[in-house]
Structures
1.
Amino acid sequence: MVERAPFLNAAYSAYHHRGLPAEDQEMTRVGPDTPCGEYLRRFWQPVIVASELGDLPKRLKILGEDLVVFRDKSGAIGVVEPYCPHRGTSLEYGLIEERGIRCCYHGWLFDVDGRILETPGEPADSTLKDRLCHGAYPAHEHAGLVFAYMGPPEKKPPFPIFDTYDIPGYQLVARAPTLWDCNWLQVKENSMDPAHVAFLHTLPGSEGFSEDFKELAEWDWMETPVGMVYIDTRRYDDKVWVRVADFMLPNIHQFPPNMDPVSLRNTINRPQATTWAVPLDDTHTMQIGYYRAPEGKDPQRGTVFGQDGLRPYEERQRIPGDWDAQVSIHDGMSRHGLEHLASTDRGVIMMRNMIRRGIRAVSAGEDLDYRILTNGAAVPTYSHDRVIPGIAPAATKEADRQLLRDVARDVVAKTVKNGLEGG
Ligand code: FES
Ligand SMILES: [Fe+2]
């Protein structure tokens, strides 16, 4: 149970805000041996854009663990502990070889899987290298991103391929990561919070969303086989615009295009991005993933408005973006006991419950229900938008709101059952 702060119900009552509740550690701590950290380690996580791996090793922190990532000259990728098992020199100063990485201090050579290939200073008959291994994690490269699996070796799941990786007419482009100075959960919760779009992203001077988003929508949420979706529905005369965004467990989201005006939306649009919120540690998060660009068109590159803290402070105060809204939540570490959740937060509540169930399953020693893995076939996801014509408004505003929700839920239910084309 989350401990709650007093519900202040009088003016000028800040004095009574005493004994403030702590953070929700079960969901926010990500280091080794923490419940959430162990849960997130059961999934492949993107750790770096593959093009970053050149002739030098890279030092990273992922899930509170220091790592060195490198690509050897044969092309194999290693994700290893930084400190050499001999006397602890960091392999970020190592020499990349045809096979593996060599510690700069006394020349021990490590393969990408941690096996020790050479201990050149030791006698020729030394068996040390055959008995000892360096710490390493499995790596997998896909479409310009390097993923690592940091969980128990015997629990390693297959690498999931989502159906949005290969959409005819579109190219998948790895995006440069953005760094968020806050806990991962508050970043991820934003993906199931469509209400913020109508406010934060339509502030004067804000960029990135079409004018259509200014109007408040009907908001709804549904579970899917891979996680959940939000459904954002608006009416234009006898047309209904349904916009569906995915949250895929444990830390992935996809959302449809933001910029096209609704008048141009005549087809089913699949998501423009697939994004992971990867915790670097408890209070730093990397958003990394893919953009999807029409073939032949320059993929979106560079920073999207409001997605980093690099703008001057005063400018961010005048036109805040996602980064400012999310990072500033309780100064980087959300305190759920200080919140007053309202009707627009139903998606956030669903998401927390879903993640908490996974965390508790792992803590209880249960195997995860990897519904996102379908024996090598592409994993269906549900994010898209479409405009449905010929739906006359109901007699009253309230009845019409219900009609919009029903139409939209029906679209999502059919999409989950029959796939997008049959949805
Ligand atoms: S510390 Fe790495 S080889 Fe000695
Ligand atoms: Fe946003």
2.
Amino acid sequence: MTDQQDPLSGYVCRLFAQEDEVLAGLRDEMARHDLPEIYISAEQGRLLQVLLTAVGARRVLELGTLGGYSAIWMARALPPGGQLVTVEMRPERAEIAREAFRRAGLEDVIEVRVGRALDVVQDLRSRREVFDAMFIDADKEGYGAYLDAALALVRPGGLILGDNALQHGAIVEEPAPTPSVQAMQEFNDRLAAEERLVSTILPIRDGLSISIVRKAE
Ligand SMILES: C[S@@+](CC[C@H](N)C(=O)[O-])C[C@H]1O[C@@H](n2cnc3c(N)ncnc32)[C@H](O)[C@@H]1O
């Protein structure tokens, strides 16, 4: 998905976020498989790259792979030897993503874990794994549990990113019209109150929450 319908987003994308054949081809491939258009925009992809570069990310965890579009953007921002672990519960989607990672030459950089995000993060926590950044983009009702996991898995100075923070505008509705919106309101409220984080929401596409894990004084 691109934001190029908006002339200013189009301008930003032309300068900073041009898709190559792999990314454009992946969008076609996802459409061919009737995958929903719920992946990030190219403009967001570039923003993720800037943020990952700013914190010197080498190891990234993504919850919610779909066809691998955001994973490719992020993996391309990692230094040699970097690694991205991405989690998808639907095996057929994971397979589309694996194929795209091969076409992108990133099969040694990106590891796809098929399973429920909650199970995978619990496994990672039990192994005391550490990540420089985590991009949360799976089921919205799980965001609270994923934030708990992120606070354990992401190192001080690292990044916790949450997509769909604005719920297409419904985030300001009281009472929340759906369980997803309610979960996102609770997630955003926690980000605002959490003293271990410095957070904000950028109103790019459906909203991206950006949190830095504070370093100890
Ligand atoms: C919004 S899409 C991810 C888009 C992707 N990050 C991108 O921008 O290219 C969300 C994906 O998360 C997967 N998903 C939803 N709930 C999940 C869960 N509990 N565990 C693992 N994957 C989940 C869905 O099957 C879907 O493919």
